[in-house]
Amino acid sequence: MSDSFVLVINSGSSSLKFAVIDSQSGEAVLSGLGECFGLADARMSWKFNGQKSEIAVEGEENHHKLAIGKLVGLTEELGLASNIVAIGHRIVHGGEKFTKTVRIDEAVTAEIEKLADLAPLHNPAGAIGIRAAIEAFPALPQFAVFDTAFHQTMPEKAFTGAIASELYSEYGIRRYGFHGTSHYFVSREAAKMLNKPVEESSFISVHLGNGASVCAISNGNSVDTSMGFTPLSGLMMGTRCGDLDPGIIEFLMKKGWSQEKVFETLNKKSGFLGVSGITSDARGVLEAMEDGHEGAKLAFEVFTYRVAKYIGSYLIPLDHLDAVIFTGGIGENSLPIRREIMRNLKLLGFVEDEKGNEAARFGAAGIIGNSELLGAVALVVPTNEEFVIAQQSVELL
Ligand code: ADP
């Protein structure tokens, strides 16, 4: 254990995730969640030394502010405060302005607020978290780590939509991509596992969690990614539809669906939940499939087929392939989903390593398959976004 800890804050519209991370080992010394903000039962729970605790966040005032205020007392009570050297905030949208992690000052906070136009649910919450943390911890330097920043290396042909160019010049409509911290982390870890300098590596990183995205990474840089202007595009997800014919939106609206109903359906009632008809959770889908549920089987097939199609197409921006990297809750744990994706990649020569696929679960990294044709392997690499936030904050200090 080192003596420099970073308090990592991930502020959502009605929630706040926090963790105190050892900036050298990446271990979460303390981790917790504030939820139901804005409601009468707002509460905060945390885990420290294997023990769980929970308190109510009482008061009419801004619950983010109240919760971060309580964090000050908590870190002191647990004896962590004197080792916390910085605060790192996870911020969803950095637009074209933020291409890497930055130290926070008033101008940065104002810019994050301005980008609310692009991320109306997330950026305002991020800025509220920043302002509350500055008030609660005035002596600590604070840093912003952006989900979009890693993808700012994408070439113009990858981020430009095939639409009228004024939509970009006037409104900033283009592909931004998300999950950047995760794709960054697993590509660095994969390079270490393969004993390759990351500057000479070539990966397709596949983050499969509730949200899911694929990223082509050439010489350490993102060159294309499946999420776009919003996190709705690309792969099928827990409740999001992924790629969809935009004509469907017009069709439904002509049928009398409101804009809210259409987007609620595409964001919250699609994906695993929509196709299976039972759950957004991959584990639940797999269990139901074993019991013979037809909708669950179809959801499994659509999901794995679409991931494989993306992997195939993401060979295009690369000049060779060292590895396909699986990560995220599904990618790190689900043997049958990884198996089916590799089966779908048979023409690219991928063959499953059954023992490896069984072993690489529940936090274990490893090789789960390979392709002689491409000279590549399939890897599982557990992601650790908090660690990246802690590391980059300390590096900038
Ligand atoms: P988030 O995007 O919210 O961070 P996670 O990365 O935690 O989500 O991934 C959540 C998904 O991982 C859920 O669909 C869950 O069912 C799936 N998952 C977790 N463990 C397993 C497992 N053992 N087998 C299959 N899926 C799993």
UniProtKB/TrEMBL annotation:
Signal peptide: none annotated. Keywords: ATP-binding, Cytoplasm, Kinase, Magnesium, Metal-binding, Nucleotide-binding, Transferase. One of its GO terms (cellular component) is cytosol. It is an enzyme of class 2 (transferase). Mg(2+). Can also accept Mn(2+). Pathway: Metabolic intermediate biosynthesis; acetyl-CoA biosynthesis; acetyl-CoA from acetate: step 1/2. Mg(2+) binds at residues 10, 385. It is found in: Cytoplasm. It holds the Pfam family Acetate_kinase. It comes from the Bacteria. Substrate binds at residue 90. Its cofactor is Mg(2+); Mn(2+). GO terms for molecular function: acetate kinase activity; ATP binding; magnesium ion binding. Transmembrane segments: none annotated. ATP binds at residues 17, 207-211, 281-283, 329-333. It catalyses: acetate + ATP = acetyl phosphate + ADP. GO terms for biological process: acetate metabolic process; acetyl-CoA biosynthetic process. Its EC number is 2.7.2.1. The active site is at 147 (proton donor/acceptor). HAMAP family: Acetate_kinase. PANTHER family: ACETATE KINASE (PTHR21060:SF21). Homodimer. Belongs to the acetokinase family. NCBIfam families: ackA, PRK12440.1. Catalyzes the formation of acetyl phosphate from acetate and ATP. Can also catalyze the reverse reaction. This is Acetate kinase. The gene is ackA.
